[in-house]
Structure formats: structure tokens, C-alpha cells
Amino acid sequence: MKRYLASILFSVFLLGCETENKLTFEPVQLQGEICEDCPRIDINIPNALDSSPISEAINRSLREEIISILSFTEDENIDSAEKALQSFTESYKEVIAKFPDEVKWEAEIDGKVIYEDGNIITILMNSYSFTGGAHGYASTSYLNFDKKQGTELDNWDLFDDLEGFEEYAEAKFREQEKIPQDANINDTGFMFESDSFHLPNNIGYTTEGLKLVYNQYEVASYADGPIELILPYQEINPYLKRKVKI
Fold this sequence. Notes:
Layout: H1 2-20, E1 25-31, E2 40-48, H2 53-70, H3 81-98, E3 106-116, E4 120-130, E5 137-146, E6 151-153, H4 162-177, E7 202-205, E8 210-214, E9 227-231, H5 233-236
Parallel strand pairs: 2-3
Antiparallel strand pairs: 1-2, 3-4, 4-5, 5-6, 7-8, 8-9
């Protein structure tokens, strides 16, 4: 009985430690001006609360993503999400001043933490913007961070064996998309540059496995939508720099 109780207490202790290691966030909602000649802007993102290096890195990266999506100028003074909203609004007002029949612009950005362990935290950013034309543009972005180093990670930072992982990912991609292993990667209608497989711009840790997302136009037409591939950790841990406990 004592041994059983000790086992329960140890499990509770481990769970408590794991919870303590998790970052604390608050939801932040930003909206644009509400007026007849204003675009619709709706932003929902997490905000890391403490002043640790990793929290500062996360908040900085989220701010830079918002600026990148909403700003149409090279103005270095746009250094906050609020200024980016203002820039988007002013750009729209300039357009409708010249073209009164322009369809109303809109932008939506949603961010959420989708994975966290002792080493890694990943934030998923879904965005949609419409600034005229036949249709808007939706995209998925993954922001991966090293919690101990307090830095954002580029895709190549995720791997110990990038070349080996790319070969493995290509084999799995061909299997999922029913492309023969000995055929040209574009034989079934994909548009990989130089007829050569490459990893997507967006790779993120998820609870299901490492997810690879090719956004619209990246390797296929707009009508094909995003192309996703999920690779289980038990198969890809040998390639990863930061292993995931199975």
C-alpha cells in the first residue's frame, strides 16, 4: 500500500513539475477601426506574460508576423501590431480614394500554442487577407522556439540530419500523394521548382507529430489548397535535434 501511495505521489509531483515548466499566456484581441470606409481587421493571439527571454522572443515574433501580414510599406516606424493595423487601414483608404468601387479589404490573424514540452514550444498562426482581386489569401505559419535558449528556430535548426530527414519526408510525401518513387515529383500535377522535392516553408511540432504544410501556391495551385503531411515522432526522432518523448 505504501509503495502504491508513493507511486501516486511521485506521478503527481512529475505532473506538477511539468505544469510549472509551461509558459503562461493571456489572450489578446485587436480590431481595426469600425467605420464605413475602414477595412475589417480581427486579430487574436496569445501573449506570453513573464519577462523571460523565451517570452520576449515569442511576443517579438508574433508582433513581426502581424507587421509582415498587414504592412504594405517599408516604413521602419511600423514597429508594433497597432501601427500595422493603422498602416493596413491607411493603405485601404488610399485605394478607395482613387477607386471608390473597391471591395472592402479584410484581414484575420489567429494564433495559438499547439505544442509545448520542456524544450520546445510551437505557435500556430492562421491568417487570411483580402486586398482585392479574384480571392483572398489564407496561410498557415508555425513559429518554433527553443525554451532553454530563448530563441526562435529556423527550420534547419530543428534537425540533426536535415538531408536524411528530407529524403524520408519525400518518400512519405510520395506515398501519401500516390506519386511513384521512381517518377518525377511533378508527374501528378505538383509544381516543385526544378522538378525537385523540397521541404515546405512551414514545419511545426504538434501533439500528433511533426507537421509539414505547403501553403497555397507553394507547390500546387490555389484550387488545391494547402498540402499537409504529418510525420510521427517515433519515426523521425533520429533526425531531430530535440527529440520528443514517445
